[in-house]
Design a protein that fits this description.
Distance between the termini: 64 Å
Largest sheet: 2 strands, parallel
Order of helices and strands: HEHHHEH
Structural class: mainly alpha
Low-confidence stretches: none
Number of strands: 2
CATH architecture: 2-Layer Sandwich
Radius of gyration: 31 Å
CATH topology: Protein Binding, DinI Protein, Chain A
Mean pLDDT: 86
Shape: rod-shaped
CATH superfamily: Skp domain
CATH class: Alpha Beta
Number of domains: 1
Strand order of the largest sheet: 1-2
Length: about 170
Amino acid sequence: MRNVLKIAVLLMVFVASTSTMQAQKFGYVNSSEILAEYPKVKQANANIESFQKVLEKQYKQMLEGFQTKYAAIQQKAANGELSPKQQEEEATKLRDEEGKIGRFEQESQQKLMKKQEELLQPIMDEINAAIKQVANEKGLQMVFEANVLLYSDESSNISTAVKSKLGM
């Protein structure tokens, strides 16, 4: 009798866990594909590229100005127009300017990263909200990124529904 009872309990646990597993629904999304096709991302990337070009132009102008000053000082020194003390003063000025250029380059990188975050974060939030909406509409408990799936039934792909939710 005890064995029958044990078997009956095990059978009930197995049936309950099987029905629970079947009730869970999963989906996946290819966010890279969505990002590549989303017009707002393309516009943000164009703005970032434009901002980057402005910074690069400023950097190039600073560098060219530095090189011009350096060449002029070298020429004056070669012609004997500068005393050793003047040469030392000019070298100090050049080192200071070189430091300013280095700081500008670092600040430019920080500004560029801040601009990227400023423009792309709201878009990422919008995409994530669309994924959440589609998941709720389809009754999905979990949504995975498609780029790391080893196998999935294509019917679990919600990328098209997310694109539709984003108006793409």
